[in-house]
From TrEMBL:
Subcellular location per the Swiss-Prot or TrEMBL entry: Cell membrane
Described purpose of this protein according to its UniProt entry: Part of the binding-protein-dependent transport system for phosphate; probably responsible for the translocation of the substrate across the membrane.
Cellular compartments per GO CC: plasma membrane
The protein's name: Phosphate transport system permease protein
Listed GO MF terms: phosphate transmembrane transporter activity
One GO BP: phosphate ion transport
Pfam families assigned: BPD_transp_1
Transmembrane segments: 27-52, 86-112, 124-144, 180-203, 251-269, 296-319
Keyword Lipid biosynthesis: no
Amino acid sequence: MADVAQKGDVTTASENLVGKRRAGDSFFLGLSTTAAASIMVILAGVAIFLILKGLPAITANWDTNHDLAGYQNKNWGSFWNYVGPLLWGSLWSSLIALVLGAPVAIGIALFISHYAPRRLAGPLAYVVDLLAAVPSIVFGLWGVIVMRPFLTPLAEFLNQYLGWIPLFRGPVSSTGSTMLAGGVVLAVMILPIVTALTREIFLQTPRLNEEAALALGATRWEMIRLAVFPYARSGMISAILLGLGRALGETMAIALIISPSILFSFAVLTDGYNSQTIAGNIANNFPIATDLQRSALIGTGLMLFVVSLAVNMLARGIIGRSATRSRKAPKIGKRA
């Protein structure tokens, strides 16, 4: 009888423990589900706000409306004629930043993952990650005070010897308020995100692939070119696209550095012929705009929201495919 009672007590305690675990699981399941749903609600709320606030200017007649007919000293004719150059400026400055910053970021990630001694790799990765914590206004001030005068001799050199290329035609800016300076600062700003993602992708390369390449007589660089880069290609592309999304939304650094105009321009060395970005245009004009002009600015923000969302969705899709391939790849041990 004592054994039966003892077994009954054990069963009751086990059932209570299972009940407590189930209650905890249900609580955390609900908490995580609420958190995930809140992200979707916030994203949908931002999209609805931009659509509702921007729609009056998007559908307005810009030729006859008093607030929009001569907005920013030009008769645009329609919202799309207004947002086109701004969208081009955002894409153009971000492309310059990617061309300048992505190779450097990938090189830093490769050095940390495959070349640097362990004693140096950790602190170096930490320092690079710290760049993400620097406010954009600080980068903007650094660009104004340091990079603009520093890049002026380079701009004069490019114009003198490569001025036959439309990209480097003059006149060269004497103040340094050029798209080149803005692109350099944006390139530094995207370094942390591109470096961090590519570093993790490089570290996930199966050791079997690397050791097989080295066993066949490949040098360190040949091993990286034949084993690491093919495995990490999609991850590198997704990291670059996420860096593009970061550069597209940058506001204050570009607004402080370049001397913009709302036009289509490839010029990177001139002053006053730089294509304005959507974010910079909103920052400069929102405080002094009328209600309908603010609607136009919010409409341009909607266009930037759509482009940024598309870029980030594309990047996440590529990351997802990379993660799937990483799980399927054979692995031996873990990288130290």
